[in-house]
Amino acid sequence: MTVTSVDAAGLGRRRAVGLVAPALILVTAFLVVPAVWTVYLGMTDYRLTGIQAANPQFVGLENFRAAIVDPDFRNSLWLTLLFVLGSAIIGQTVAGFALAWTLRSVPRLVRGGVEALVLLAWILPSSIVAFLWVAYLSGDGGTLNAVLQTTGTEWLLEHPMASIIVFNTWRGTAFSMLLFSAALGAVPPSQLESARLAGAGTFAQLRDVVLPHIRGHVLTNTLLISLWTFNDFSPYLLTAGGPNHASETLPVFIYNKALYGGQLGYGSAISFIMLLINLIIALFYVRLLRERR
């Protein structure tokens, strides 16, 4: 290798480092440093007020051990998994695909109107959407009670988990619909037509023609909405985790412990556990994507 080629290679490496350096700085500043700080806080008895606020003590893994044996934490973890399964994996995926599949064969004007309505639910601020749903589910003059003629039923108190699952499905379906609409556009129409001519029904077409083409999109969509739903704080705006912890998902549980209850050390430990669970979920889906390829 000549001196000129060595210099060129060194220059290329320096340029590559220069290109990725801003991204590395941002990742370090907004991801690595907060994660390390969270781990440190999780190993202390730091609180918002009192002696521990001025002079927190190092307690090692005590907060993590306390979280594992805490029945309220285990309840919140179970409710979070139920929330993800019901509103993301089943609700948003099924509703998003059903809309995308149905809108393929409707007039353009109808398709545009439906897509606009679904997108509106997605882009509105969480506080506004939550207010509308509180009014919709209210037992005193709520819209749902007026439609079903069940005056006096407090849906958010009597069925809190079902309420926030339906709420999150309604609010987040737009992303799945858009992703599946793009994916279905790549399915060769000739293959669908051949399947129809061969006598294949809708289910057979979806199983044998559509799913093999969009499997990667399905996994990507499920990964993203699972992580978003797992970390979603919007249920707090509807139920605040109540009644009696019946809808207290992990983000709400952390808020109640760390900020409302002042236990920042304990809340940080649970946040780190939540981060590890997110990593496990992401690695699971990434492995499925690699197997598909």
TrEMBL record:
UniProt cross-references to InterPro entries, sorted A to Z: MetI-like, MetI-like_sf
CDD domains linked to this entry: TM_PBP2
Keywords: Cell membrane, Membrane, Transmembrane, Transmembrane helix, Transport
Membrane topology category: Multi-pass membrane protein
Start and end residues of each ABC transmembrane type-1 domain: 73-285
Keyword Membrane: yes
Bilayer-crossing regions: 16-40, 77-101, 113-136, 264-286
Pfam family of the protein (one): BPD_transp_1
Family membership: Belongs to the binding-protein-dependent transport system permease family.
Protein known as: Amino acid ABC transporter permease
Natural source organism: Terrabacter tumescens
Lineage, top ranks: Bacteria, Bacillati, Actinomycetota, Actinomycetes, Micrococcales
